[in-house]
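Example (one chain per record):
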Amino acid sequence: MTDSTGLLARTFLGWTASAGFMFANLSPALVSGMLDDHGFTPAQASAVFSADMYGTAVGVLAVVGLVNRIRWRGVTLALLGAMLLADVASVWLHESVTLTVARFVHGCFGGGLVGVVYAVIARVGNAERTLGIHMVIQLSLGGVGIAVLGPLVPAWGVAPMWLALAGYNVIALVMVRSLGDYPIPQSATAAATATDDAVARAPLPMLPVTLVIVAVLLFQASQMGIFSFAMEVGRYHNLAPDFVGLSVAAGLWFAIPCGLLVVWWSLRSGRVRPLVVSISLTALGIFLYVVNSPAVFVLANLLFAGAFAVALPYLFGLAADFDVSGRFAAFIAFVSTTALATGPIVAARISGDGDYPLVAIVATAGMAASLLAALYPAYVLDRGVTAYRSSSTSPL
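Predicted structure:
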C-alpha cells in the first residue's frame, strides 16, 4: 500500500478523479467526430456531451451527503466498473437519443466517483498539489487523445475514443486497490485549520463559500463553453484541420509543466496572487480566439490551457481548505460538472450558425466575473479561515 500523503498516492488519486472528467477533455475531438462519423447536428453532438456532464452533476449531488459515511475504495471500484461497461457499450451506439441516454448514465456513475474522490483529496491536505497533478493528467492525456485519436475518426469513427476511455478506467481500478482508507481528520489532525474541535465542526462562512460556488460555476461554464468548440473556432478561421488539432493538443501539452508548477509552488505566495495571474491569462487566451491568425490561434491555445491548469487547482483548493471533511469539495464537484454541462449548451445558442468569436467574447467576460468572485474567499483563506468562521455561517 502506498504512502497515503506521498506523491504516488496523490498521483493515483488525481488519475482516479480524472476518470470522471476525461470525457470532457476529449470533447473537441468527440464533438467533431460525432458530427463527421455519426452525422449528428451540432445540437445533437452537444446534447450527448452535456448529457454526460449533467449525469456527472447528478452523481456528485447524490453522494455529497454520503461521502463521510461510506468506505470509499469499495464504492469507487464499483463506480469505475460501471463506467467501464458504459464506455464499451457506447462503441455500438450510433443513434443520438440512445447515445445521449447511455452517456447520461455513464455521467451519473462518473459523478459519484468524482464526489467520493474529491472528498478524499480534501482529507489528504495541500489539496492544490493533488489537484495540480489531477490537472496535469487530464490535460496531457486529453492532448494525446486529440492528437492521436482525432485523426482516426475518418477510418474508425468515434469507437477508438470510447475504448480509450474504457482503458483509462481499467488503470484506475488497479490504482485504487493500492490506496489507503483516508479517514476524516479528527481535531488533532485538523489543527492546521481549526483551533479546537468545536471550530472544526462549525458551519462554513456564508459569504466566501457562496462566492467560491459562483467563481467555480462561471469559470467552468466559460472555459468549457469555448473549449468544446475549439476545433470549430479554427475551422471558422479557415485553418487547416490538422493544424487546428495539433494546436489544441499543443495547448494541452503546454499545460503539463503549468500544472506541475502548482504542485511545486503550492501556497508559497498565498492564493490571491496565483488566482489573479492565472485567471487573467486564461481570459486573455480565450479572447485571442477572436483573432484570425494561425500564430495567434496557437498562442490562444497555449495561454488558455496553460493558465487554466494553474487556475483550477487553486479554485478547487478554496473549497477543500474551507472544509477538511471533504463535503464542500464534493459539493463543488457538483457545481463544476453542472457548469461543464451548461457551458457548451449556452455556447451553441450564442454561436447560432457559427459565430464563435462571440462565444469567445462572452466566455472572456465570464472569466473576469469568476476572478472577481474568487478574490474575497481567497483573501479570507490567506488571512486565516479560523478567525473568520464565527462571523457568518452557511448550512453546508
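Caption: Confidence is low (pLDDT under 50) at residues 187-200, 386-395.
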